[in-house]
Amino acid sequence: METTHLADQPPFPPQQRVRRTGWRALGLPALAAGAGIGAVVLLHFRDPHVEGSYGICPVYGLTGLYCPGCGGMRAVHNLTDGRIMDSLHSNLLAVPLLIAFAVFVGDWAVRAWRGEGPRVPDLPRPLMWTVLALFLVYSVLRNTPWGSWLAPV
């Protein structure tokens, strides 16, 4: 007959993760959506075109160069006013990234309702490096005379 000693047993029984479904599972996706909507509403009512309303971009303040995010808040403000072309002119990347965020949070909410976790895309390395290179080219181009049309307004 085998005996087990208390030292051989784990101090606590293993916890089983309870999967939440339905309304109870929507907490984190709703929090992310609320934060995004809150930021968009703030940018709609407090105009970033007014000098000093949000401060300055640290990259622009230190180097005088536009980073990939410069003009992003103005782009969202223009988008909430229905001025799509002005939004794209302020920051060409802001609108697609805003759409991607909305799609990600929407998909996360649907998956959470079903009791699944968020879908984290498994992007191949060449695609990640390509996206990084595009951001770098965009940053360099918008700081040259040839890409002045990409500079935030």
Key terms:
153 residues, mainly alpha, 6 helices, 51% helix, 0% strand, extended
Task: Walk me through this protein's architecture.
With about 150 residues, the chain is an all-alpha fold. The chain has one domain (about 25-150). The protein has helices at about 25-45, 60-65, 70-80, 85-90, 95-115, 125-140. Helix 3 (about 70-80) runs antiparallel to helix 4. The N and C termini lie far apart (about 80 Å). Keywords: Membrane, Transmembrane, Transmembrane helix. It comes from Nocardia xishanensis. This is DUF2752 domain-containing protein.
Radius of gyration using CA atoms only: 23 Å
Low-confidence stretches: none
**Order of SSEs:** HHHHHH
The proportion of residues in beta strands is under 5%
Main sheet record = none
The secondary structure category is mainly alpha
Shape: extended
Transmembrane segments: 25-45, 92-110, 122-141
Protein name: DUF2752 domain-containing protein
Keywords: Membrane, Transmembrane, Transmembrane helix
InterPro entries: DUF2752
Write a compact overview of the structure shown.
The chain is mostly helical and 153 residues long.
Please write out the topology.
Blueprint (H helix, E strand, L loop, with lengths): L26 H19 L12 H6 L8 H9 L3 H7 L3 H20 L11 H17 L12
